[in-house]
């Protein structure tokens, strides 16, 4: 490959990394038109095979973003039972009182756009793409040789904070890893977390005093994890803490864990749309009370297993979070955080470690911003294990080394995200009936995630990406292949 052709091909790969697939396609077609040696042409043809698929996938994510705003304008959010929220939005002239078909309280589209324009797209302490961290605040600390289920004590938190500080080369975000008992307050936990850990940290402040909440203001390396909406309805116990954090000016991590078929619709596109809509509503409210306040999008769509529990061992959990990450990295450019790298298994076993490793590797290959819950969690975020954390870090260090050494000339991996042209109708039906389980839309999409997985697997049989590093898809095909 001559230098000029190599530079041109690399420009196409760079355009792909920026999700500019139309331009990348033109670059590759230009190389093909002018001719090159067969080695180059093989790479170019390989990339051209994916361009139309990636262009179509990006169009779906653009529709997700658009439809999420339409959820807020045409269906609305149920805040009628909270006068504080109603007063804030009425005073801002944000409510569309002329809309007679919305189910709940609809917002004006121009007001939504105005608020979202004010959300910062850059974060001062940005750890960069493919950052994996810990967190989730499981209720129980898993103790080796001890089956007692209880939160972590002060002494145990000191050990956890010290262990995380020692692993800063692979732990890019230190979120609150487990609940604490009465021997230590959350505010004291925050000081332990900050003692020797320099990168970005997250803690919840809803139980803290006003003075303690103010401590996190203007601290670039802290985000205040908060939430407000579930099932298109406000959570009454979170209204005051949410508004306090936003008005204080803390960096906000806006969390929404909509669950397919439980608190949200069942198809991948409709699940992303509702999840995204609820985070956008939180952004709008935050910008209303404090224009310009930093907001990180933490929409973490989730799936369940047969018994109804969250299923972090399911490949669907990884795929849907990779797709949510792309909505933000490709379309909105909001700083974002996902969930992944965990397991449904409650005991520290080789399979539990492998579940977590395969999920992290898959998310890395698809490309994400920040992933919480990626080390140490067990039982679909019900437990934190310091022993598993250490094992996860070793595996992550090894995976990162392999991935960093792989040539990145394979380009962007398609997710083959499935379309659902009934997304808005499905979300509206569920809102009207009050439960996804009784909605026709949910029943019609009961196999949608499985069908999506099969599409990804079929494609991987034809073209494995970065085969040197095992992931969920490659593992289902028998493990990594020779490069």
TrEMBL record:
Pfam families: MTTB. Signal peptide: none annotated. This is Trimethylamine methyltransferase. The keyword DNA-binding does not apply. It comes from the Bacteria. Belongs to the trimethylamine methyltransferase family. It comes from Desulfonema limicola. GO terms for molecular function: methyltransferase activity. GO terms for biological process: methanogenesis; methylation. InterPro entries: MttB-like_sf, MTTB_MeTrfase. Keywords: Methyltransferase, Transferase.
């Amino acid at each position: 490959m001559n230098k000029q052709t190599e530079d041109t091909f690399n420009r196409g790969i760079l355009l792909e990394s920026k999700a500019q697939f139309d331009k990348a396609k033109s670059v590759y077609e230009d190389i093909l038109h002018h001719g090159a040696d067969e080695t180059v042409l093989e790479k170019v043809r390989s990339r051209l095979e994916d361009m139309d698929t990636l262009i179509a996938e990006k169009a779906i994510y653009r529709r997700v973003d658009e439809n999420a705003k339409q959820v807020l304008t045409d269906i609305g959010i149920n805040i009628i039972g909270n006068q504080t929220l109603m007063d804030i939005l009425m005073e801002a002239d944000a409510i569309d009182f002329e809309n007679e078909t919305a189910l709940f309280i609809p917002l004006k589209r121009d007001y939504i756009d105005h608020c979202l324009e004010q959300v910062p797209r850059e974060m001062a302490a940005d750890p960069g793409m493919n950052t994996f961290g810990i967190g989730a605040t499981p209720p129980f600390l898993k103790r080796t040789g001890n089956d007692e289920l209880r939160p972590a004590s002060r002494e145990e938190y000191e050990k956890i904070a010290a262990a995380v500080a020692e692993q800063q080369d692979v732990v890019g975000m230190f979120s609150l890893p487990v609940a604490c008992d009465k021997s230590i307050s959350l505010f004291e936990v925050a000081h332990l977390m900050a003692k020797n850990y320099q990168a970005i940290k997250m803690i919840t402040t809803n139980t803290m005093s006003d003075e303690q909440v103010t401590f996190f203001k203007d601290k670039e390396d802290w985000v205040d994890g908060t939430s407000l909406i579930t099932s298109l309805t406000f959570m009454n116990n979170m209204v005051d803490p949410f508004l306090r954090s936003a008005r204080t000016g803390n960096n906000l991590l806006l969390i929404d864990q909509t669950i397919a078929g439980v608190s949200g619709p069942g198809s991948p596109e409709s699940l992303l749309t509702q999840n995204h809509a609820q985070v956008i509503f939180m952004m709008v409210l935050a910008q209303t009370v404090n224009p310009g306040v930093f907001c990180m999008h933490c929409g973490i769509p989730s799936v369940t297993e047969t018994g109804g529990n969250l299923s972090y061992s399911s490949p669907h959990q990884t795929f849907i979070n990779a797709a949510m990450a792309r909505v933000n990295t490709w379309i909105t450019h909001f700083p974002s955080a996902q969930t992944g790298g965990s397991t449904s298994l409650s005991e520290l076993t080789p399979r539990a470690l492998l579940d977590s490793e395969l999920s992290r590797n898959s998310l890395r290959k698809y490309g994400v911003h920040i992933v919480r819950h990626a080390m140490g969690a067990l039982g679909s975020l019900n437990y934190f294990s310091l022993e598993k954390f250490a094992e996860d870090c070793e595996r992550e260090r090894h995976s990162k080394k392999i991935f960093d050494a792989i040539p990145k000339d394979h380009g962007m991996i398609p997710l083959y995200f499935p379309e659902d042209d009934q997304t808005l109708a499905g979300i509206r039906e569920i809102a009207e009936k009050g439960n996804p389980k009784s909605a026709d839309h949910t029943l019609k999409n009961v196999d949608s995630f499985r069908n999506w997985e099969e599409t990804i697997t079929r494609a991987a049989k034809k073209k494995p990406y970065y085969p040197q590093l095992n992931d969920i898809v490659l593992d289902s095909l028998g493990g990594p292949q020779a490069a």
